[in-house]
Amino acid sequence: MQKPLILVTGAAGQTGSATTRQLLAAGYPVRALVRRRDARSAALEALGAQIAIADMGDPEAMAAALKGVRRAYFLPGYDPALLHQAAVFATAARDEGLEQIVQMTQWLASPMHPALMTRQHWLADRLMTMVPGAAHTLIEPGFFADLPYLATLPYAARLGMWPWPFGDSRNAPPSVEDISAVVVAALQDPARHDAKRYRPTGPELLDGPQMAAILSRVLDRRVRLAHLPFPLFLRAARLDGLPLPMLAMVRHYRDDAIEGAFALRAPTDDVREVTGRAPETFESVARRHAAGISRGLGPTLRQFAKFMLVPMVPPPPVASYLKGLRMPAPAAPASPVNSPIWRSEHRVDGPATSETAPLKAVG
C-alpha cells in the first residue's frame, strides 16, 4: 500500500529537518518546504525529499506546495506574520482536503500573553481546527534542550563558564529528536492522535546548577554557572545572530521560566506513550552537541574575545521594533501562570492528560 505524501513546513529548521529525516527513514514520501535552496535543503534532497521553495505567506505558492499532499506538519516561522501564515496554510489545506494537520505550537500559548507571537500561536491553534475533515494534533513543547540551553555550550567547553539568565527556574527540556519523533508518530496514525495535545519533555526536572553539573561531566572539566544579567544576555544573543523578532519575545519567556511555567506538569510521559521509547536525557543531548566543539587554543581565544565583546554590542532595538509593528496588544497582559484561561486549557490544576481542551474563542 502506497504511503501518503506528507508536507513538512520549516523543513530547514530544527524540528522540521529532523521530522523530514525521520519520515524518510520510515519510508514516507516527503515534500520539504523551505524558503530558499541552500546546503540544508540540498542535504534533505540528497536523502530523497522533494524540495518546495515558497514563502509561507504566499497563498498561490502554498497551494502549489500542498498539491497532492494528504498530511502535513505545520511549523510556522518565527515571524510577526505568523497568524497570516497560518491563515494561508489553513485555506490551502481546506482546498486540498488534507486528512491531517500536526501543528507546532508553544506550551506558553495564551490569548493574554505579553509576547505577540505567543498570542498568535494561540489563535493559530484554533484556526487549524476549522479545516473540515482534518485530524488535528498539537505539539506544545517548552524550551528545548538544544535551544536555548545548549546554544551557549561552546562557552562552557572552552571557558569553563556557562551563561545562565534563567534565575532559579527548572525545566525538563526535550531534545529536537524526541519532539520530531512525536510529530512523526502522530503523522503515521491520524485517527489515534486526532484532538490530542502532546507536550514532549525530557525525563527529569533540572535547574541551572544541575545542568551545569551534567555539563561538567560531559566536558570533563569544571563548568561554573555564570548568572548573566538579562540585558547582557540579549546583547550576547544578538551577537550570536538571533533574529530581532525572537529577541523581542525572549524576555517574556525568561520571565515565564522564572515564574515556574516550564516546571508545571513536567516531566510528562508523552514521548514514551507516543513513540514507545524513553525520552533522551539532558546529558545525552549535551554529549551530541559537545562532540562537534573544538577546544584547541585558537577556538578558546576566539571564544574569550567574543565573550569580552558582548558588553560593547549595542542592545537590540526591541522597543522601536515592536512599536513599528503596530500590532494590537491585550489591555491587561498576563503571564501563563497568572492566566486562568491558560491554566484551564493546560489542566495545570488537575490531572495531566493528552486530550485537547476545547479550542474555542474567549467571551
UniProtKB/TrEMBL annotation:
Q: Which InterPro entries match?
A: Ergot_Alk_Oxidoreductase, NAD(P)-bd_dom_sf, NmrA-like
Q: Which domain of life is it from?
A: Bacteria
NmrA-like domain location is 3-101
Q: Where is this region: Disordered?
A: 333-363
PANTHER family named among the record's database cross-references: PRESTALK A DIFFERENTIATION PROTEIN A, PTHR43162
Name of the protein described by the UniProt record: NmrA family NAD(P)-binding protein
